[in-house]
Specification:
Chains A, B: This is Monooxygenase. Chains A, B: It comes from Kocuria dechangensis. Two copies of one chain form a homodimer. The first copy, chain A, is of the alpha/beta class and 438 residues long. Chain A has two domains: 329 residues, Luciferase-like domain (TIM Barrel, Alpha-Beta Barrel), CATH 3.20.20.30; 79 residues, no CATH class. The first copy, chain A, is 38% helix and 12% strand. Chain A has 14 helices and eleven strands. Chain A is globular. Chains A and B meet through helix 2, helix 3 and strand 6 of A and helix 2, helix 3 and strand 6 of B.
């Protein structure tokens, strides 16, 4: 009998937690965000919870430094250190395809794969903000379509660079050759965006190729994910939206000639866990209460394009015009409408939801109730697992590992020990042969 | 009374050692060059020897993979891991200014400075080979002058990015701001090669700025070093050459308006240490004997532009035409003439000298005799210290740490404990203020 399908879990580590006010809590790690030991501790916690991987986002502009931490350590250097504080858990770094060359990216990821003994994943992004472009010599971000064309070529070159050393190329013979020159081959790439002769300076990574993650939301993003991603970080605020995304992506993966069953689709998940539902809600309410109201309402005003400064924080959200009558940016507004319709929040609760993971699924409750909802998503074509976005670090990660993981394990949904030593192994992915499509 | 002037020592880690045949020894680490634990062990040895720093070169093309190891792990990721295996020793990475953007480089180096608690140095290079350029979208290396112009601008932008966060910008106030936006300033750079708005995504590094190393040999290289370097990795095969370089660089540093006494000039040093002179020579001869003669003679033929294939390996090097009658590349040929004139080597010994550090100073002898020569260089205007290039790893590093360092310490030339926690501290360099010239 084949092994039962298993959940996959990443721990998406971000600042003092994904809630915008997490750093304001008494005792928060706000002062430790440049301290690698903080991240090592988090990675060890996630490894104790048998997570597939830790996951780092990345950005190339500083953002609003007043409102809270956004970036600090560069993820590849941070993950190299964390590789040595852990032994099994995967290490996923976001690397943008818009600013560097594929040779740089392929080389660092391959090096990190060697350092970690085969535990590296690459979350491919094309970046977003003009402020990022202006740190790398561009006047503004290239148009969306051009970014995705470049990303496609960037990924293809990286894959070929990882294949440029055959698996058996490096076989030091003390009386002969260190490596077989016939098995270390140029890639000879010349395309619209890149020229790369190769081979890579780094022998083939332990995983063959680091695991490709993608977070495709737009059409071109989903197509890029369909062609290349081995795991997907999805955005879905509710079950129906997640099912729709899941079905659409599986269609695209199949259309790209690949096996949809082999690609783990992992929506973001913001979870507040308590021994009782009331305790969980109290954790959420406590951090929501730390949001500076004026600033949050001013941000909300731009999201809903009306003046919210007079709204009563503890009253229900006033009625909002339907999407078709809204003139501003649709994505965030649609999320707000959906949260209001399904959760009937107070204004403060809405601000809290938006401040923690934005449009991502939020679960608040007991370990059993959260495991119920995870299982529901997992069994109803909405998720193969989750990219856990702890609203409060380290607390929410501790809670999930100590309280939710054991429930998932008892239900046979999640591993009770690591059975593999590589991230590919955790995800059930085969090691790609040199030259395999990817 | 001011503290006596002290030697500075870096351990330049490279493959199985700097000798081209080091990997061929029985028991060599040839099979461990992708294993980060190997480098961690070396760094711990260097730290036990109280070295200022470990030092990594870097290159972007694979070279001749048959003849021996050249590159493997990417240095920034490797050093991030090594930062966690050590507590005091500096960590110097070569980063080229020709292929990436200054934002990428400044960000990674700043991140590594946080991870290591202020122990990072940057060896600024402009790279050399067309094969490297062709991995990063160029047809060939830019001309020498253009590379150095770009390097100058690259370094200036990196310095400004490190200064973009004031030292006191990050002061999380749970009831107010995470960082003071008025103390996190754009750099607004727009030059011939780069446009970089800034600020950096990484708060100011613990050292203020990572320490700048440079290895200027050419005129423009020496000038770049004179304007910016805080420590210099020099090439000098003998005392007279080292003195000449030292005096020239000090002149250029003074001409650039800086204090020559504040820049540590550290020639490369290949050292074979033995309990007796005969034992040291035997170590050298043993590895020289592992050089494949045909291949080495063929390489020598290109250096001296005559057919050496019939030369007797154990006979003295035949007479060579003087430099002024030589039509090929001068640098390497001049080194060969100097080695032949001063050391009267056999052909095999010459091949060994060229195979281990090329034109760098080579010392073979007892701990006392090597300490004598080090002291001579140190006291006669030739060196402020050395970038040790162990011909055999880990053996030659162990020998130096266990046998030579104690002699240097007894003579009061070298620290007997670390008195600082940062690389700047080890080198006696002040922490630069934001906006300081550099």
């Amino acid at each position: 009998m084949p092994a039962a399908r298993q959940l996959h879990l990443n721990a998406f580590l971000f600042g003092a937690g994904h809630h915008g006010a997490a750093w304001r809590r008494p005792g928060s790690p706000a002062g430790r965000l440049g301290d690698i030991a903080y991240y090592e501790d988090l990675a060890r916690t996630a490894e104790r919870g048998l997570f597939d991987a830790v996951f780092f986002a990345d950005g190339h502009s500083v953002g609003d430094v007043g409102s809270g931490p956004r970036w600090f350590l560069e993820p590849l250097t941070a993950l190299a250190a964390m590789a040595r504080a852990t032994t099994r858990i995967g290490l996923v770094s976001t690397v943008s395809t818009t600013f560097g060359t594929p040779f740089h990216a392929a080389r660092m990821l391959a090096s990190l794969d060697h350092i970690s003994g085969g535990r590296v994943g690459w979350n491919v992004v094309t970046s977003m903000f003009d402020a990022e472009a202006r740190n790398h010599g561009l006047d503004a971000m290239p148009p969306h379509a051009e970014r995705y064309e470049r990303a496609e070529e960037f990924v293809e070159v990286a894959l070929r660079l990882w294949d440029s050393w055959a698996d058996d190329a490096l076989a030091p013979d003390r009386d002969g050759l260190w490596a077989d020159p016939d098995r270390v081959r140029p890639v000879g790439h010349s395309g619209a965006h890149f020229r790369v002769d190769g081979p890579l300076t780094v022998p083939r990574p332990p995983q063959g190729r680091p695991v490709l993650f993608q977070a495709g939301a737009s059409g071109p993003g989903r197509d890029l994910a369909a062609r290349h991603a081995e795991a997907v970080y999805a955005v879905a605020s509710d079950l129906a939206g997640a099912q729709e995304y899941y079905a659409d992506l599986e269609r695209r993966i199949a259309a790209a000639g690949r096996d949809p069953g082999a690609v783990a689709i992992m929506p973001g998940l913001v979870a507040y866990v308590g021994a009782t539902a009331a305790e969980a809600r109290a954790k959420q309410a406590a951090v929501d209460a730390l949001l500076p109201p004026e600033q949050s309402l001013s941000q909300l005003s731009t999201y809903v394009q009306q003046d919210c400064s007079g709204w009563d924080l503890d009253a229900p959200v006033p009625e909002l015009p339907p999407l078709e009558r809204f003139g501003g940016p649709q994505g965030r507004y649609a999320t707000i409408l959906r949260i209001v319709a399904t959760e009937r929040p107070t204004v403060r609760e809405l601000l809290g939801r938006l401040a923690a993971g934005g449009g991502h699924c939020t679960m608040v409750g007991t370990p059993e109730s959260i495991a119920d909802r995870i299982e529901q998503w997992f069994r109803s074509g909405a998720a193969d697992g989750f990219n856990l976005m702890p609203p409060l670090l380290p607390d929410s990660l501790d809670d999930f590992v100590d309280l939710v993981v054991p429930v998932l394990q008892r239900r046979g949904l999640f591993r009770t020990r690591y059975t593999a030593r590589t991230l590919r192994g955790h995800l059930g992915l085969a090691r790609p042969a040199v030259g395999a499509p990817g």
